[in-house]
Specification:
The protein has two domains: about 375 residues, TIM Barrel, CATH 3.20.20; about 40 residues, no CATH class. The chain is about 35% helix and about 15% strand. It contains 15 helices and twelve strands. An eight-stranded parallel beta barrel has the order 3-4-5-8-9-10-11-12, surrounded by six helices. Strand 11, helix 11 and strand 12 form a beta-alpha-beta unit. It binds flavin mononucleotide (FMN). Flavin mononucleotide (FMN) binds next to strand 4, helix 12 and helix 14.
Length: about 425
């Protein structure tokens, strides 16, 4: 298998083309300025990613309202942010015009911070809660998403990823747990209404066939009543609804889907396999293949949880590390029709230049993610985020926050 050739081959997404098979995952890094605009630090991070040249780069979860933020320094996409976002995109595209730049639009719902935002819920989950959303609230939220998509389009983004994963509002509505009797709860028809109408409305409002619309979807959230389970109290994996969702969104014009799993505040290792339990990554190809088999051949499926393979992860027993590196596993999954592209999350923080190094045959120079998960610790602690292993700036932030507040209780939750 010529893995370099596979990973550097182009692929069509809707009317557009990704130059290679790498997607830079959305990675919230909490470094926006006080108005929710990209700061110099945000720009530096993305400038490196544009130099690295993944075929598709996702702008981290950007909040569609001020009151739906889970991070204090989260990026926002309101009319006041339009101009700064336009300048940001222009500067990045002047570094490298090739990557498709996708904005991940989000509303945190039950994960909005009650400290600096407004916690709202479709049906209070034990330990979370918030103000119960009304149908009028939902209409307002949809309008905010549509406006955000138009701002993204006018700022020069190539598309949007409507976030339907990881326990944020988009996935809260889809869950069987959302059994409340209202327009957006109970039956599948009601629970899928938000995702379907939103996709329809955005495509109509933006009215540009070259503007991509897709979603990142948690195939199985991994707790009773989460998305991808058999019922409001059931933890049993049942992919009927996730598959129905893909087909419904595809019919409405979505051209790509990013597979993921879990809801990190509840089932973090499912979302990002950890050093202690790397084998959880073995679950993901099953979800990726189920996604791939459900959609039309031209709809692009992108897989998650590839950082865990690194240079050949010796913790992954029963796999020859030489034959099971991130690059080889990724290429093999593409060759075997499990996915079309591979998404890099923590690995993109460790080495934003990976795609360029692969293209130039400089693999020896790649800094592979060590799964230390210090980036996750910084996220939980609402600090500026980057790779603490390879970038001293972030190591220093980690050291000083630990000095000030002590070490984080393990388990990350
Ligand atoms: C610091 C950090 C920030 C993240 N931010 C986002 C985000 O904004 N949106 C999202 O969909 N996933 C987010 N994730 C999840 C990643 O995009 C990705 O799905 C996950 O880390 C698994 O991929 P990996 O094994 O390559 O890291 C984040 C993860 C981390 C560790």
């Amino acid at each position: 298998m010529n893995y370099q050739k596979i990973l550097t081959s182009p692929i069509k997404i809707g009317t557009r083309k990704s130059k290679n098979r790498f997607l830079t995952q959305a990675m919230e890094c909490c470094d926006a300025d006080k108005d929710g605009n990209p700061s110099e630090l945000t720009y530096q991070r993305y400038a490196n990613l544009f130099k690295g040249g993944a075929g598709m780069i996702t702008l981290e979860a950007i909040s569609v309202t001020h009151e739906s933020r889970s991070r204090d320094d989260q990026l926002m996409i309101l009319p006041a942010n339009a101009k700064p976002l336009e300048t940001f995109v222009k500067k990045l595209k002047s570094i490298n015009p090739d990557p498709l730049f996708i904005f991940q639009l989000t509303h945190s719902g039950e994960l909005s911070s009650p400290t600096f935002s407004r916690r709202v819920t479709v049906n209070p989950l034990y330990g979370y809660g918030g103000d119960l959303l009304s149908e009028d609230d939902m209409e307002k939220i949809m309008n905010e998403f549509v406006l955000a998509a138009k701002i993204a389009h006018d700022a020069g983004a190539d598309g949007v990823d409507l976030k339907l994963c990881h326990g944020y509002l988009g996935s809260q509505i889809l869950r069987p747990y959302n059994s409340r009797k209202w327009k957006y709860g109970g039956s599948w028809e009601n629970r899928s209404r938000f995702a379907y109408e939103l996709t329809d409305r955005i495509i109509r409002a933006v009215n540009d066939k070259n503007f991509l619309v897709g979603s990142k979807i948690s195939a199985w959230e991994g707790f009773p009543g989460g998305f991808g389970t058999a019922g409001p109290d059931s933890p049993v994996i049942d992919l009927k609804e996730p598959i129905a969702l893909l087909k419904g969104l595809e019919e409405r014009g979505a051209s790509f889907f990013v597979e993921t799993a879990g809801s990190p505040s509840i089932t973090v290792s499912l979302t990002q396999a950890e050093r202690q339990h790397p084998y959880i990554a073995y679950l993901h190809p099953t979800f990726q293949k189920a996604f791939k088999d459900a959609v039309k051949p031209e709809t692009v499926i992108i897989g998650s949880n590839y950082s865990v393979w690194g240079k050949g992860n010796k913790g992954l027993q029963a796999c020859d590390p030489k034959e099971n590196t991130l690059l080889k596993v990724g290429a093999r999954n593409i060759e075997n029709g499990i996915v079309d592209m591979i998404g890099l999350g923590r690995q993109s923080l460790a080495d934003p230049l990976l795609p360029l190094k692969v293209r130039e045959g400089r693999e020896e120079e790649i800094h592979f993610c060590t799964l230390c998960d210090n980036c996750l610790e910084l996220l939980i602690r609402q600090q500026k985020i980057g790779c603490c292993t390879y970038n001293k700036y972030y190591t220093n932030i980690l050291v000083s926050i630990r000095k000030e507040k002590g070490r984080l209780n393990q388990n990350h939750t």
